[in-house]
Amino acid sequence: MRIDGIILRELHIPLVRPFETSFGVTRDRRILLVEVRSEGLTGWGECTAGERPYFSGESTDTAWQVIVNELGPMLAAAEDVEHGGDCPNLFKRVRENRMAKAAVENAIWDLEAQREGVSLSRLLGGVQDRIPCGVSIGIQSSISELMNVIERELAAGYQRIKLKCKPGWDLEVFERVRDRWPGIMLSCDANSAYRLHDAERIRSFDRFDLLMVEQPLWHDDFFYHSMLQRQLKTAICLDESIRNRRDALAAIEMESCRIINIKLGRVGGFSEAIAVHNAAMERGTPVWCGGMLESGLGRSHNIALASLENFTLPGDVSASARYFADDIIEPEVTVTSKGEIEIPDIPGRGYEVRTDLVEQLTVRKETIRAFAMA
Ligand code: OSB
Ligand code: MG
Asked: 101, 263, 338, 365: which one is catalytic?
C-alpha cells in the first residue's frame, strides 16, 4: 500500500473518576494516536503506554520519541507494507518498545480492514459475534465505597468483577465482597504488589473462590510464579510477564499460570497478540483481553481481538462511559444488560473516529516523514 501520511498526536482526556492500582493513581489520560493515510483511507492506532513508566518501562513520552524518531520513519520509508502482519519484521531493529510498535502496527491492520472491506474482527480471524465483559475496579477510599461501585457494575450486567488489590487492600475486602455476593465471578489483580514472604497471605485467598489472581509477583517473573502456583488452588493469571508468544509458552510449560491476559500494547500489536492467543489455545490455556484505560479507539481494537476463539473468559473490555464523559468514537462502546459487547459486522473497526473531537483534544501533533535509514 502507498503510505501518504503519518501523523502522531497526543490527546489529553480526563477520566470521569480516578483509577487507582497498586502502582499509582491515574486522573487524566495522555493518549497517543497514530493516524496513517493511504489511498484515501485512514487507519488509526492507539498507544497504550501509561503517563508514567510504572506498569511497564514505556510511557507516553518514550513512545512519542520512538514513534517519531524510529517507527514512523521506518513505515514512511517502507515500500512493501501490505498487511498489519508485515510490521513486526519492519520494526525488528528496534528492541522492546512494544506499546509504541503496537500503536503503529494496529493502525495498519485498521487500514487493511477498511481496504479489504471486512470487519477488523474477521480480518484478525475472529469467530464470535459478541464477547463477555467484566470490569476492573480500582482501589477505593473505603470498603463501603467499593461495595457501591460493585453494586452499580453488577446492576449494569457485567459478568465478572476484578478488584485491584495490594497488601492491606485484599483479605478484608474479599471477605466483605464474598459475604454480600457469594456467587459472582470474582478475581483480583495485584500488579506485582506481593513478594515471596507474602506467599501465606496469597494462599489464604483460596478461601474466596476467586477465578484468578492476576500478576501477584514481579512484573518480569515466571519462576517464582510457578513456585507460588504450586501452592495455590486459585489460578494465577499472568499479565505484565507475558511479552510475546515465547513468554506464553514458557509460562504454560513452567506452570507459572493457568490463565493468560492478552493486551495488545503489552505484546506489541495484533500480530503477536494472535500468536499468543494461538499458542495458548493449542495448549488448552484460556485467555482474556485486558485493558489499559484506552480511549474508544483502542477499545474498538480490543473488542475485535476478543472475538477470537480462545477468548473464553470475560475481558476488561467495558463501556466507554465508565472512563470518559465523551468518547472519541461514534457510537461509543456500550454493554448489553447481559454484560456483552456485540462485535460490529461492518467493514473496518466498526466505530467512527470523531475527528473534530480528536482535533479539539490534541495538545501536540507531528507529521512524520521518511528519512534515509542508516
Ligand atoms: O493491570 O489490567 C491492568 C489499567 C491500567 C494498567 C494496568 C491495568 C489496568 C486495568 C484497567 O486493570 C482495565 C481497563 O482498561 O478497564
Ligand atoms: Mg493486570
From this structure: 263
Distance 135 CA to ligand 1 centre (A): 9
Superfamily of domain 122-342 in the CATH hierarchy: Enolase-like C-terminal domain (3.20.20.120)
Each domain of the chain, given as residue ranges in start order, spans 5-117+352-373, 122-342
Fold of 5-117+352-373: Enolase-like; domain 1 (3.30.390)
- Of 308, 295, 318, nearest in space to 133 by CA: 318
For residue 207, what are the contacts with CB-CB under 8 A and spacing of at least 6?
none
Q: For strands 130-132 and 160-164, give the pairing.
A: unpaired
Q: Active-site residue 164, yes or no?
A: yes
Cβ 187 under 6 angstroms from ligand 1: no
What is the maximal distance between C-alpha atoms in the chain? 63
Could you tell me the mean pLDDT of each successive run of 10 residues in the chain, 374 residues long? 94 97 96 96 98 98 97 94 97 98 98 98 98 98 98 98 98 98 98 97 98 98 98 98 98 98 98 98 98 98 98 97 97 97 97 98 92 49
